[in-house]
Each structure stands twice: as structure tokens, then as C-alpha cells.
Amino acid sequence: MRSFASGRWGSWASFALAVGLGLFVTACGSSSSSSTSSATAAATSTGTASTSSGTDLAALQSAIAPYTKPPTSIGPTVPITKPIPKGKKVVFINCGAPACTDMQDSFDAAAAYLGWNVTNITTSPTPQGIQASFAQAVRDAPSAVVSSGFALNQFPEQAKQLNAMKIPIIMNTGTDPSTYDPSNGITLQLQPPPEVAQATYLMADRAVIDAGGKGEFGTVLLTGYPSVANNVANFTARVKKVCSACTVQSISIQPTSLGTNAASLIANFLRANPNIKGLYFGYADMAVGLSAATKGAGIALPKMYAWAPDADGVEQLQAGTMTAAVPLCYVETGWQFADAVARLLTGSSVKDSQPWQNYVLWSKQYGNVPTTVNNPPCIADYKSQFTKLWH
């Protein structure tokens, strides 16, 4: 259990987000060809014609409309036909961020359902800490190692050892491709960068629509984490691609600023760039405390967009302080990890675990923000859908 006050942020500062933040979701694919009534209203209020600068707002609205409805189906569809063995040992390496803890809790629940034993290791945000955590996994010699957001170059020797032992490494939102081979690299990379980029494009399109097709935007980068850097770069590239009259300013935040002065730094950034219409966070929890910081400093808070909201982010979405966000769907991620391990244990194709559910763009305007804040699933019956594949 973690608190959402000072204790929670103290944990963040201490683990400094422990690499990669695990955050970011797969394969977009179109969930529906029809838009919701609220999406239609958004198009009407924003305007459906191209702006004088040439931005096609109607095309952008059409692009995001299918994603205003929550997904209804998990990604994997191929049943596992062989019995899934019980009693297996799996190691989960937790990056220390709230997102990683949510995924760990979900994976632990799925593993318990399947009768496995999980060793949870929470790493520290240093090269030595990361390598020590994976070295412990090597010593434990489990049936699989599961984690999120790490790259092979952060634990090269330990990865080689795991590969030599043919222990599969299941990763999420990292930068390495899937090999589908436990003796080589990352066996399965859920939600690789090209797919996560599609989620970022949804937020960029929404931001440009809200700005009326012109204006200045800001991005907030957490340094040292490739997944966050990819998100910020993709948001910036998308804004510039669809909006020739848009500019982007950026601020970088050090992990040591989380829970200390990050909100003040971002508030000062907004003070120095008063024309910013929309602010994008490569990871939603960087927005925690910003509303209070800007209010106290008398700074107008622009519309905000973020990837992978945790409890604080969901609360901001419910209140409308956060304009829109794409969730990582932590619960489903944990169960999809388990699906991948189950396929490997039964000699099935782990490629069948690769597909991801469709994205959803949460916004109070669309009426699709969950009513609960603590790790809400994106798909209500995800558990029954996964277990149906396992029996």
C-alpha cells in the first residue's frame, strides 16, 4: 500500500522513478468507427474546417473520435490449449514508480490465480541498483523475469546470463524489440515505442484541436528515462506535423525534483512562457501539485495532457484540471504479462501475447473518466477475458 501524500512522493524521490517508468501502451488500432456524442460536440465547439493556418481540425477530430470510447476487448485472442503448470517461480522487478507498483500488484494477482510464486524486487535508480536487481533475478533462476521500462544496455551482463539460462525476459514500454526467443535479448516487449507513439499522437491531436489550430505548447520531460523522452519527442513531432502555426517549448525535470520542487519549476516555466495554451507531460505524475503551485503564484494554468495517469491524474481528469490523458491500463498490463509467461511455460507462441487492446482518450468532456481513482481497469471484464483464454 502507498499513501498519496508526502510518503508517496518520498518513495518517488528515493527511487527516482527507477528507470523507464514502465509507462506506455501498445497497439492502437481503431476501436470503433463511430464517435460519441461528446466527441461530436467537441468538433462543433472547436470548428470543423481548416484554420487560416491550414490545420485541418476536422481531420484531427475524426482521428481521435474512435478513441473516446473505452476498449471492450483485451489484445490476446488465441486460447492456450495446454494445461498451465502451477508452482512456477517468477521474478517481478519493480522500477519504484507508482505505475510500476500498480503493474506489480496486477501481475501478482494474475500469478496467484495461476498458482505461481512471485518474488518482487524493487530496484534503485542507479546503474548499480538496476544491475544488482537483475543479478538477484539471475541467482533466483526463475521461470521468467518480468519488468517494465528498462533497456538491455542498463543490465547487459545480467541479460546475457538470463539469455544463456533461457530464462525469458518480459518487458513493457522499453526500447528493445521482441525476439520471441528466451535465449536472445528481450523475449517479449509489450507496448514498444512505435505503438506507444500512437497514444501520444491522440493527445497531440486533442491539444491542437483545443488550441484552435494555432499557438504555443509546452512539454515536460523527466530526464534519464528513454520511454518518457520518446513520448515527449513524439508529442512535439506530431504537433509540428499537423499544425504549421504551432510552436513547442520544453522544460526538463530531474528525478530528484519529484516530490520536492518540480511543481515550482514547472510553474516558473509557465510564468516565463505565458502564451502556452497546452502543456503535455510525458508521464502524468509530474503534474502532481502543479495546480496548487500555479494558483499560489497567480499563474494561469493551461490545458493539460498526459500519458499514463495514476490516482492523482485520474482525480485531475475527474475535476477537469487535466484536460485529457491516455491511460496505460496497468491492470490489463499485469495480466497480459502473465499471459505471456503462461504461453512460454506451455510451449505456445508468445507472439500471441503481443497484441494490445485499443487505446482510450480519457477526458471529462467525453464522460469516460473512471469513477474510481485507485488503478481502475480500462476494460471492466478483463479478468474473465484472460481466464477464458487460459482454460
Task: Provide a descriptive summary of the structure in words.
With 391 residues, the chain is of the alpha/beta class. It folds into two domains: 6-72 and 194-326, 3-Layer(aba) Sandwich (Rossmann fold), CATH 3.40.50.2300; 89-192 and 331-357, Rossmann fold. It is built from 13 helices and ten strands. It has helices spanning 6-15, 37-46, 57-64, 98-114, 127-140, 156-164, 193-210, 226-242, 262-272, 290-297, 311-319, 330-345, 382-389; strands spanning 89-94, 117-122, 144-146, 169-172, 188-190, 215-222, 246-253, 276-281, 303-307, 324-326. The strands form two sheets. A five-stranded parallel β-sheet has the order 2-1-3-4-5, with helices on both faces. Helix 2 packs antiparallel against helix 3, helix 3 (57-64) crosses helix 7 (193-210) and helix 5 packs parallel to helix 6. The longest helix has 18 residues, at 193-210. The chain is globular, with a radius of gyration of 21 Å.
